[in-house]
Design a protein that fits this description.
alpha+beta, Nucleoside Triphosphate Pyrophosphohydrolase, 5 helices, 11 strands
Length: 211
């Protein structure tokens, strides 16, 4: 998608209704569907950011590969959007998502315009209620990954995310030694993007196509 096409859609972004959990669960593995998990009272809040920006006049977004050095991180090694848990000084969840993006990949928070929140998603394995946000940067950022948390950065054209051929199935072995069968995922930059991140993308994809 050309950057100018994105800019023409900006006035409609805040008004287009979200498809919600129905769209998210199209990319959930069978263990989660059709019974969405409700967050318990002790769920921790986290914010993540899907940042849109221009690169060679095309719309891109960025993912991180989570570092594998933090033993208690149940999502280590996975591909995700930048983000993390809410801290006491964050005025709201959008601020958490933007702050974490700055800390993890070095994007100056002053350059990020938050466009809207997508549908929150509870992750049982880590007890996080994730609040995804859509953001915009007018220029391609210079990414500086935080080595303790980020092993790598993936810049992906939006047209790949919107391409139905990028949606596939595979078996995935998780940290407990369990193998999940026929897990839906997005094949992006030769990487497997699955789980909560794929579910967030799925809602974005359905919502975007309706704009």
């Amino acid at each position: 998608m050309h950057w100018s096409q994105l800019l023409t859609r900006l006035p409609r972004i805040s008004h287009q209704p979200l498809p919600g959990q129905q769209a998210q669960y199209r990319m959930a593995h069978a263990g989660r569907y059709p019974h969405p998990s409700l967050p318990p009272d002790n769920a921790r809040d986290a914010g993540v950011l899907m940042l849109l920006y221009p690169r060679d006049e095309e719309v891109y977004t960025v993912f991180i590969r989570r570092a594998g050095r933090i033993e208690q991180d149940k999502h280590k090694g996975q591909i995700s959007f930048p983000g993390g848990k809410r801290e006491a000084g964050d005025p709201d969840m959008a601020a958490s998502a933007v702050r974490e993006t700055e800390e993890e990949i070095g994007v100056n928070r002053q350059r990020i315009r938050v466009l809207r929140e997508l549908t929150p998603l509870y992750i049982p394995v880590s007890n996080f209620l994730v609040h995804p946000f859509l953001g915009l940067a007018e220029d391609r950022p210079e990414f500086t990954p935080q080595p303790e948390e980020v092993d790598g950065i993936l810049e992906v054209p939006l047209r790949h995310i919107l391409d139905p051929d990028k949606q596939r199935l595979t078996d995935i072995s998780i940290h407990t030694g369990l193998t999940l069968r026929d897990v839906p995922y997005y094949h992006l930059n030769d990487q497997i993007v699955w789980g909560a991140t794929a579910m967030i993308i799925s809602e974005f994809q359905s919502w975007w196509e309706a704009l």
